[in-house]
Amino acid sequence: RVLITGGLGQLGVGLAELLRQRFGQNNVILSDIRKPSYHVYHSGPFVFADILDLKNLREIVVNNNISWLVHYSAVLSAVGENNVAVAKDVNITGLHNILDIATEHGLRVFVPSTIGAFGPSSPRDLTPDLCVQRPQTIYGVSKVHAELMGEYYHHRYGLDFRCLRYPGIISADSQPGGGTTDYAVKIFHAAVKTGSFECNLCSGTQLPMMYIDDCLRATLEVLEAPADNLASRTYNIHAMSFTPQSLTQEIQKAVPHFKTTYDVDPVLQAIADSWPMALDDSAARRDWGWKHKYDLPELVKTMLSHITVSNRRAQDF
Ligand code: VAH
């Protein structure tokens, strides 16, 4: 059975749905430190989990006969810069607990990394899997640490550790969790609701992005890949790169009057300027057949239709 930590964040509920279709509803357990909504609570097994409490984690793994663990609990880039102590606890101590429990019980463990694990001295265009990583956020530092610790536990204790560096993830049904790429989710809700959006990054800021369905499918594919196919523990995955300006222009094809204005947040802008503009994901495509399905036009069409439909449903109630 699979345990997902941080399951109530932007990605967890979607991943649970995908894995439950694949492995059966009762074989995927969502966990989080927060209270689930009525809908989530009744969509499948949920348990409270405090990743800082090793005893609590061990009980959950043993009592629920867990064999795979997807570790989504994390403090993201923007929130982390305002709460470094919390980010260290959750992203570093929490990660250590996950690796120790996984090793103790021979679990297969997936931990996401991020484009934020690169820094200004990393090659910024077509950033390779293996290159200099000197990120300048506690989030990025903690994710490089996670990559290194996962690789160490694999070589030292044989832990089946798997890791993907996610781009900014765009989703319609779930809110982002306080990252630098959150604008790229909020802009779609604004396009449907008000027809205008105030962006906190400057118009030419190019960042790698991915639609949530591609991200969750990649996660399932790498979890199911035969261990022998995985030449490394950590892989970049890439789908598209865009700027607030090119995203706005694509949205205007469907919402002609849509307008974006800019009120740049210097802290977020500095983080975004230190991140890659596009990732080289050739190793993932070679080793386990990774292939994205959503490009920018497809993303915009899908996001606008999802949000329009769910807003209409909400009005009908
Ligand atoms: C963030 N959405 O902005 C997250 C993600 C690639 C960005 O890690 O922090």
From TrEMBL:
Catalytically driven reaction(s): L-threonine + NAD(+) = (2S)-2-amino-3-oxobutanoate + NADH + H(+)
Complete-protein stretch covered: 188 to 504 of 504
Protein name as catalogued: L-threonine 3-dehydrogenase, mitochondrial
GO biological process: L-threonine catabolic process
Pathway, per record: Amino-acid degradation; L-threonine degradation via oxydo-reductase pathway; glycine from L-threonine: step 1/2
EC number: 1.1.1.103
Function as written in the Swiss-Prot or TrEMBL entry: Catalyzes the NAD(+)-dependent oxidation of L-threonine to 2-amino-3-ketobutyrate, mediating L-threonine catabolism.
EC class (word): oxidoreductase
A Gene Ontology molecular function term of the record: L-threonine 3-dehydrogenase activity
Domain NAD-dependent epimerase/dehydratase: 2-237
Family statement drawn from the similarity comment of this UniProt entry: Belongs to the NAD(P)-dependent epimerase/dehydratase family.
Protein's organism: Xyrichtys novacula
